[in-house]
């Protein structure tokens, strides 16, 4: 059986520690840079999954919150809204009062900072929205909306 001297272990231990530090630093930097941000910064703090908010909308409507879900559609005319979905529930996220825009092809896990409300769409509003929606996407008569100050989407989402 071959024995390793303590002198041979120390250099190897240093190399392993250095590799470990480099890997953990790279992972932290990747996580920090993974969000594509639009509009104002999304504040740190509690995040409410959209499905949870829509299960009890009265507890969340009219209050500024950070909601999470997945961007599944974007206004195909200007990029002025996104559809956020979570566990089969959805809300249209308006990007302020056309204060900022997102790329028309952005998709993936997201967080939005804004105010939730329930809106009844007029026939004219439904027709207008249908023209901006991806082909085949339904436009309901009543929808939940979030008027957002900021949106962030995971940039490196393989499912996007």
Q: Which SSEs are present, and which pair or pack?
A:
Elements: H1 6-33, E1 35-39, E2 48-49, H2 50-55, E3 64-74, E4 81-86, E5 89-95, E6 108-120, H3 123-132, E7 142-154
Parallel strand pairs: 2-3, 5-7
Antiparallel strand pairs: 1-7, 3-4, 3-6, 4-5, 6-7
Q: Counting H and I runs of at least 4 residues, what is the number of helices?
A: 3
Shape: globular
For the termini, the CA-CA separation is 53 Å
Remind me, CATH topology of the largest domain?
OB fold (Dihydrolipoamide Acetyltransferase, E2P)
Please give the domain count: 2
Structural class comes to alpha+beta
| DSSP strand tally | 7
Sheet with the most strands: spatial strand order: 3-4-5-7-6
- Computed over alpha carbons, the radius of gyration is 22 Å
Note the main sheet: 5 strands, mixed, barrel
Tell me what the CATH architecture of the largest domain is. Beta Barrel
- The H/E string reads HEEHEEEEHE
What is the highest CATH level, the class of the largest domain? Answer: Mainly Beta
State mean pLDDT (0 to 100 scale).
Answer: 83
Helical proportion, percent range: 25-40%
Relative strand content: 35-45%
- Low-confidence segments, given as residue ranges, are 12-30
């Amino acid at each position: 059986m071959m024995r390793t001297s303590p002198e041979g272990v120390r250099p190897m231990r240093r190399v392993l520690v250095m590799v470990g530090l480099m890997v953990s630093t790279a992972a932290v930097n990747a996580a920090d840079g993974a969000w594509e941000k639009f509009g104002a910064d999304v504040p740190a703090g509690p995040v409410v999954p959209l499905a949870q908010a829509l299960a009890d909308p009265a507890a969340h409507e009219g209050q500024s919150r950070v909601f999470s879900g997945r961007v599944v559609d974007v206004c195909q005319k200007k990029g002025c809204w996104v559809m956020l979905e979570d566990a089969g529930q959805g809300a249209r996220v308006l990007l302020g009062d056309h204060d900022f825009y997102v790329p028309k092809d952005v998709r993936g896990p997201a967080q939005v900072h804004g105010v939730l409300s329930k809106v009844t769409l007029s026939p004219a509003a439904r027709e207008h929205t249908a023209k901006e929606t991806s082909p085949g996407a339904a436009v309901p008569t009543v929808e939940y909306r979030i008027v957002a100050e900021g949106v962030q989407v995971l940039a490196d989402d393989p499912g996007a």
